[in-house]
Write a structure and sequence with these properties.
8 helices
Length: about 230
């Protein structure tokens, strides 16, 4: 036994030994190869599903071409106004608030920035004390407006959390869309880049996909709807 090699020990392995099972027959080797391939395939499928989820934009209604006259928020004729609709329970919208904060740091003086926080009731602390609500309040230069049942957001055509609309001093729509590159992606998206240029008076795209949870309907991440779709 002392001189027996590791190879000889493996060849004498019982059928319950992994080495023995793999080395005894071609069929056993084929079985383990198929098992490994299936395992890798399931991982690849899961990654593909997550990627499709991250890169699939939400729905967006038509934004008004001019500031809604019946809107509860009065238009500011002295500077452009950016309005962003947020579902407080949408985990994807943390990335949107990051972009709002970056825009506020650069443009709070020359652009009015408003974050609409949707809730079934503006008196429900379970919603008004949500992390997203507190994060929005902490951004200097941003107005946080409680939007009961999403009535204001609906007037701006928002259907997905993270939808932003930019209006010029004259009340005309300049941009409608999302600010992030994908769901929960922290980098600067084409929408945020466009808004930055438009606020500074340059020319840029007037739309971009919106990535986030549904505002008016059940969502796997956000749960029950805040209200009915306008």
């Amino acid at each position: 036994m002392g001189s027996e090699s590791l190879r000889q020990i493996r060849e004498r392995a019982t059928p319950m030994s992994i080495f023995g099972i793999i080395r005894r027959t071609p069929a056993s080797r084929a079985f383990w190869s198929a098992l490994v391939c299936a395992w890798l395939g399931s991982i690849a499928a899961g990654i593909g599903t997550m990627a499709r989820f991250d890169w699939t934009p939400g729905s967006a209604g038509p934004a008004p071409r001019t500031w809604p006259p019946a809107c509860a928020i009065k238009h500011d004729f002295n500077r452009p106004t950016l309005v962003v609709a947020i579902h407080p329970r949408c985990p994807c919208s943390a990335a949107t608030l990051t972009q709002v904060e970056a825009l506020a740091e650069r443009h709070a003086a020359e652009c009015r920035l408003i974050v609409l926080m949707l809730a079934p009731s503006v008196d429900d602390p379970a919603w008004t004390n949500a992390p997203a609500w507190r994060a929005a309040r902490s951004i200097a230069g941003v107005e946080v407006v409680a939007d009961a049942l999403g009535g204001i957001a609906g007037a701006f055509g928002a259907r997905t959390s993270g939808h932003a609309v930019l209006f010029g001093r004259d009340g005309r729509l300049m941009f409608s869309g999302g600010l992030t590159l994908s769901r929960a992606h922290e980098g600067v998206g084409p929408g945020a880049a466009a808004v930055d240029v438009l606020i500074r008076g340059g020319e840029a795209a007037n739309s971009a996909p919106v990535f986030g949870c549904a505002l008016f309907g059940p969502d796997d991440l956000c749960g029950p709807p805040v209200g009915e779709r306008p």
